[in-house]
Each structure stands twice: as structure tokens, then as C-alpha cells.
Design goal:
The protein is α/β, with parallel strands linked by helices. It contains 7 helices and 11 strands. The protein is globular and about 50 Å long. The two termini are 22 Å apart.
Length: 237
């Protein structure tokens, strides 16, 4: 693995021809979730089946947050008190009509990053898969939808539907896009019911959805990683 700076963000590169993101193979970009360190998802590259020479890139969110343990980062800030109150009241957390404060700025970070990935790493968007976990899933979806490029696929690990008023018309332009989506039926952070709504939005738009629910919480279990590897083998060449 090697560290670099692209688009003003710290990134970690692995895989490729040298284990450090070298070569011109396909590229998988994965964004970590809220409160995680920048290297949170890096170990996934060791578990995922992917075509020989596939490169993995893990951007580090720009916002450092004080959570009292290690390096915690965010793409945008969230209202933790509201989340806890909703959980205590047994309310389904529906963010579909919300445009999170800070999403626009995070999208701009991603736009610059993706442009530099293409220029400096020679990554063809049609051989590039975008994705992430939780907040990283939301941002990767938003960034892809707002891009004019044709990407090889999208990965949504424990994500949810936000900014529906913006996403819905953009989704109609992504008919046929390969999508991998997983979610735990007992997720206490981002409710399963809202993941189903996100899935239905994708399906309605004609996106090719590989839907992988699992019995569990806000996590990425091993069976999901195996199925994600199969998805990548088909999505990129």
C-alpha cells in the first residue's frame, strides 16, 4: 500500500501490479463511513475477488471529528443527538427528503478527486467502480449521479436514500448501471426499510441491482464480501 494526495484528499492505494496501485488495471474506489479512520476499508482489498491487476483506492474524508478514540473522520457532520432520539423513540430514520448539510461540499471534493484519478492514474471511468459504506455509500452514489461520466458500477454497503428530489431525475440517466447493494435487516443506524426504498428507486430507474440483504447490523459480513467479489469480476475487465 502507498499513500498519496489526490484532489486535496489523502488517499491509500493498493492492488495493481505492485501492491501499491501500480499499472493500468481497473479501479475500485471505496469511501469509508462517518467516524471511521481513513484506512478503515483498506483490508477489504485483501478479501475481494477482482480481475488481475485491479487497483483499489481509499480516500480519507476531509473532516476530523472528536469522538474520543483514534482518528475519526467524516464527509459531512451529522446530528448524533437526533439519531439517538429517533432510536429511543423507535422511529424509522427517514432522510430521503433531506439534503444533508455539507453534501454539496463533499460532492465537490469527489468531483476534483475523480478528475485527478482519471488524469494522474489513467483510470478509465468505464473501468472504474465507485462505492462506499454508510455515509461513504451515500456520497459515492451522489457523486456518480452528478457526474457526466459512464462508470462501470456502483457499490452501496449499508447506505440509505437521501436527497431524493435531486437523485430521482439523475437516476433515470443511469439505466443499466450495475449496482451492488447490501444491508443488514437489524441495522440500528440506517434502517433496513430505507435501504429497501433506495433499492426500489434504483429498480424503478432501470438500474441493474444485485440486492444482498443479510441478517445483521451496520456491518459488512464475510458472505457479502464474497458476493461483492463476484460482482466485481463481472463489472470490470
Amino acid at each position: 500500500m502507498r499513500m498519496d494526495t489526490l484532489g486535496g484528499l489523502t488517499v491509500r492505494l493498493t492492488g495493481g501490479t505492485d501492491g501499491k496501485g501500480g499499472g493500468n488495471g481497473p479501479l475500485v474506489v471505496l469511501l469509508h463511513g462517518f467516524g471511521a479512520p481513513g484506512d478503515d476499508l483498506v483490508p477489504l482489498s485483501e478479501y475481494l475477488d477482482a480481475p488481475t491487476g485491479t487497483r483499489f483506492l481509499f480516500p480519507e474524508a476531509p473532516i476530523s471529528i472528536p469522538m474520543g478514540f483514534g482518528d475519526s473522520r467524516a464527509w459531512w457532520m451529522i446530528d448524533m443527538a437526533r439519531i439517538q432520539a429517533d432510536r429511543a423513540a423507535g422511529k424509522v430514520r427517514d432522510m430521503s427528503g433531506e439534503i444533508p448539510r455539507g453534501l454539496t461540499e463533499a460532492r465537490e471534493h469527489m468531483k476534483v478527486l475523480l478528475d485527478e484519478i482519471q488524469k494522474k492514474l489513467g483510470a478509465d471511468p468505464e473501468r472504474t467502480v465507485l462505492g462506499g459504506f454508510s455515509q461513504g455509500a451515500m456520497l459515492s452514489c451522489d457523486a456518480l449521479l452528478h457526474s457526466t461520466q459512464s462508470y462501470a458500477g456502483l457499490i452501496q454497503l449499508s447506505g440509505t436514500l437521501v436527497a431524493k428530489q435531486e437523485w430521482a431525475p439523475l437516476l433515470t440517466k443511469r439505466k443499466g448501471l450495475p449496482l451492488f447493494q447490501s444491508h443488514g435487516t437489524q441495522d440500528p443506524i440506517l434502517p433496513y426499510a430505507m435501504a429497501e426504498r433506495l433499492r426500489d428507486e434504483f429498480l424503478q430507474a432501470g438500474v441493474s441491482v444485485d440486492w444482498q440483504p443479510f441478517r445483521g447490523g451496520h456491518e459488512i459480513p464475510e458472505p457479502v464480501l464474497r458476493k461483492l467479489g463476484s460482482f466485481l469480476l463481472k463489472a470490470v475487465r
